[in-house]
Design brief:
Blueprint: H1 16-28, H2 32-69, H3 80-104, H4 129-144, H5 148-175, H6 179-185
Helix pairs in contact: 1-2, 1-5, 2-5, 3-4, 4-5
């Protein structure tokens, strides 16, 4: 009898390689100002876009899918309640993630030193609605697939979101001087109850 192995089934921890490499390359995309100084405005945008869109995002997505697919110990037995809560978190997170992309448009994927500050819509309430949505979705994914690898990938992604947001803010202050005041006025991920 032959055993058929999925391409995802190998050493359980190997999912970390593309995941962390993807986070690192996406993180390196946060330096649009520095790349623009070195390669010109257009060159800086191209370097940022390649690091983010062609390398970083695909790699961390592959790492996360790998974590989802690999055989891994369950951390709890999922049930109907965890599935419902998981889907609620995913849908609740997808909304600001998608709407946030609509508000910033292509600037999200092709940042430039010529960008202007977006302060309307969700960006009037939080500075990073796209990442805030992701922070809601990640626990939802763990509830849907409660394995050790998905938990590790999700915790790593949460840590990465906080680091990435900070790196981007450092760059945004250089590209858009009024961003510093915006940081004082608008919270990073969680909106204030009263404005």
């Amino acid at each position: 009898m032959t055993t058929v192995h999925s391409p995802w089934q190998c050493a359980m921890e190997l999912f970390l390689i593309p995941l962390i490499l993807g986070f690192a390359l996406f993180g390196a995309s946060a330096f649009t100002t520095a790349y623009s100084r070195r390669f010109g405005a257009r060159g800086g945008t191209i370097v940022t876009a390649v690091l983010r869109n062609l390398l970083g995002i695909p790699l961390w997505v592959i790492g996360y899918i790998w974590a989802w697919r690999v055989l891994s110990p369950q951390i709890f037995v999922p049930g109907a309640i965890t599935a419902i809560v998981g889907w609620i978190l995913i849908v609740a997170g997808a909304a600001p993630l998608l709407v946030g992309h609509l508000y910033v448009g292509m600037r999200s994927h092709f940042p430039s030193v010529k960008d202007t500050l977006v302060r309307n819509g969700l960006y009037a309430y939080v500075r990073h609605p796209i990442y805030a949505g992701g922070l809601l979705m990640l626990p939802g994914l763990v509830l849907l697939r409660p394995t050790l690898t998905v938990l590790i990938a999700s915790v790593a992604a949460i840590i990465w979101v906080f680091i990435q947001a900070r790196l981007e803010e450092i760059d945004l202050i250089q590209r858009i001087p009024e961003y510093k005041d915006y940081m004082r006025e608008v919270p990073r991920f969680i909106p204030r109850l009263r404005r």
